[in-house]
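Repro:
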Amino acid sequence: MSISPGFTTAEIREFVHEYQRVPHGRKGAWLVEREVSDHVLRRWRDTVYAGDLDRGLIPRDSSHMTVPPGKRTALEKVRAAERATQEAEVAQLSKRVRELEETNKALGKAIGLLHAMSEEEPADTPKTPGPSDS
């Protein structure tokens, strides 16, 4: 869920990172070139650094001065690395799930064959002891 129509969360995150790299004094002109208002950028920046961009949650604390810009970029890089690690782990676990599902199918087929084979064989008739054996 995106916090702005027409923009994906990845685009918003990249936009905020690009804005952080623009030298001081050129940021206003950079925003005008991209036709994004200061208010929208502030909301995006708060969501990227202190909220939950992926779920579209904007933090209530409107003080954007609590985390310096350099630390914001570092925090976002750490979060991006964590997301990449989690995505790799999810991919690995998904692969393992597929392997186990295939194994379960194969075992199910083998068990079915064993049941079919045991039904085809004649049953052993137990020998009952005669009256003289007792």
